[in-house]
Amino acid sequence: MRIFLAGGSGVIGRRLIPQLVSAGHQVSATTRRAGTADRLRELGADPVVVDVYDADGLAAAVAAAAPDTVIHQLTDLSDYDTDANARLRREGTANLVAAAEAAGVERMITQSIAWAYVPGDSPADEDVEIPEGSAVRIMEDLVFSMSHGTILRYGMLYGPTTWYEPGGRVADAVAAGAYPATDAVTSFAHIDDVVAATVQALDWPDGAYNIVDDEPAPATAWLPVYAAGLGAPAPVVTDRPDGTPRGRGASNAKARGVGWSPIHPTWREGFPQM
């Protein structure tokens, strides 16, 4: 299969390329920076230097690659700028969908998140609403407007090259005692599990899938385990700030139903292996 991977130089993209190539796919992978092209080539992809906000350039790049499927792994979090990432979800996705459709591509697989659901008391399945008007909802609706769309709602990523690896953004905050333990609930996903799920999703039916581990948990449960693995001080247990959502976690039953099984079924065993 010919695949156009938008976001080939990102945290997931760099790990995804070798897995796609190993599975027999031909991959064209994008980067905004010409200096990254050689690295993408070394990983096994045909590098494409293009900016997702350059609609004409993006359309030309997708047309030249002539893919069977587009995989959307674009994010903009290198500067921890959530506004920039929201813009990418709205405007970047719109450009990518338009480019794909102009090239006659009928299917897109897209990275989303598993913590955007409306509040609730139990882990969310894929039928729970994502608030209308949010950047995540806009992104997903754009993808679902195509003939075939698959949304992978990843849990909070941990593992190598993520914010949770030793020396990463979250790890440094925990080591500094600046990350309190509240009752806020998180569903985690090891980066190796989301990469495996993304490759497998090429054969899944259209629709949304939560790619999370088996154990949504409040920070009062997972954070002490994580801190201990880092050799960091035990976190301070505190109430959530007023107005901060508790979250609810997500269920992975649908993804398991199509054959996906996490390598790291719980953060309890995944954290110590980082």
UniProtKB/TrEMBL annotation:
Residues 236-264 are annotated as: Disordered. Signal peptide: none annotated. GO terms for cellular component: cytoplasm. InterPro entries: Epimerase_deHydtase, NAD(P)-bd_dom_sf, NAD(P)-dependent_oxidoreduct. One of its GO terms (molecular function) is aldehyde dehydrogenase (NAD+) activity. Residues 3-211 form the NAD-dependent epimerase/dehydratase domain. PANTHER family: NAD(P)-BINDING DOMAIN-CONTAINING PROTEIN-RELATED, PROTEIN YEEZ. This is Nucleoside-diphosphate-sugar epimerase. It comes from Gordonia humi.
